[in-house]
Amino acid sequence: MSFTLLARLAAEFIGTAIMIILGNGAVANVDLKGTKGNGSDWMLIAVGYGAGVMIPALLFGSISGNHINPAFTVGLAVSGLFPWAEVAP
Asked: Which residue windows are coiled coil (predicted)?
């Protein structure tokens, strides 16, 4: 099933927002005083970013390909596996 460009862009936007919220939230939890994760180590941050990538991949991978990292999109375009006309949007 093919989705419109607008639907794919919306999926990418929401997926990127989820990644940023979970990943940066994990960093804030480790670094800010008064949080339950204060003083934890890198493992909590890795799990936060890992979940932030996995959840959008499961939710939106079939819609947009889950290109939440612009470097991934550019790499696919350079290799000819993604149309250059859709890189900028």
From this structure: none
Please give the residue range of the domain that contains residue 79. 5-86
Query: Helix or strand or coil: residue 49?
Result: helix
Two tokens, residue 11:
């999926």
Residue 30, SS3 per DSSP: helix
Domain count, the chain: 1
Whether residue 12 contacts residue 60, with contact meaning beta carbons closer than 8 Å, is answered with yes
Q: Which candidate, 73, 67, 85, places its Cα nearest to that of 15?
A: 67
- Kindly report whether the global pTM for this prediction surpasses the value 0.85: no
Cα 28 to Cα 14, 20, 41, 63, 65: the distances in Å are: 20, 12, 12, 30, 29
